[in-house]
């Protein structure tokens, strides 16, 4: 990232302006350059795409949805978090069948 700090590539800067990282959680919104530029992150950070569609994702405990160019943000309750973890676990288990 230090090599990019002096970059004049405004398209690159704009695309990564909606990218957020908190410890090992990373959220990059509307960034078509993300997949081709993952080398800017440390190799120890394992990147897994976890959104269920292009219009819905979860980052930390926040549910983000986009519909008709409107963004809806919902903070997840403890019960919603448990359901999310359970559904992710069940989907993972289904890969072994």
Structural class by sheet pairing and helices: alpha+beta
Q: Looking across the biggest beta sheet, what order are the strands in? A: 3-4-5
Shape: globular
SSE string, helices as H and strands as E: HEEEEEH
Model description:
- The chain is an alpha+beta fold and 97 residues long.
- The chain has two domains: 1-49, no CATH class; 52-97, no CATH class.
- Helix content is 25%, strand content 25%.
- The chain has helices spanning 10-16, 78-94; strands at residues 19-22, 25-28, 56-59, 62-67, 70-75.
- The strands form two sheets. The chain has a three-stranded antiparallel β-sheet, with no helix packed on it. A two-stranded antiparallel ribbon has the order 1-2.
- A hairpin with a 2-residue loop joins strand 1 and strand 2 (25-28).
Protein topology:
Blueprint: H1 10-16, E1 19-22, E2 25-28, E3 56-59, E4 62-67, E5 70-75, H2 78-94
Question: What's a concise summary of this model?
Answer:
The protein has 97 residues and is of the alpha+beta class.
Key features?
single chain, 97 residues, alpha+beta, 2 domains, two-stranded antiparallel ribbon, 25% helix, 25% strand, globular
């Amino acid at each position: 990232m230090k090599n990019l700090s002096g970059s004049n590539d405004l398209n690159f800067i704009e695309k990564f302006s909606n990218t957020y990282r908190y410890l090992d959680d990373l959220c990059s919104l509307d960034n078509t350059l993300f997949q081709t530029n993952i080398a800017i992150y440390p190799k120890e950070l394992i990147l897994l795409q976890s959104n269920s569609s292009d219009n819905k994702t979860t980052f930390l405990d926040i549910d983000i949805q986009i519909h008709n160019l409107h963004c809806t943000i919902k903070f997840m309750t403890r019960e919603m978090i448990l359901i999310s973890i359970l559904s992710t676990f069940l989907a993972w288990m289904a890969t072994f069948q």
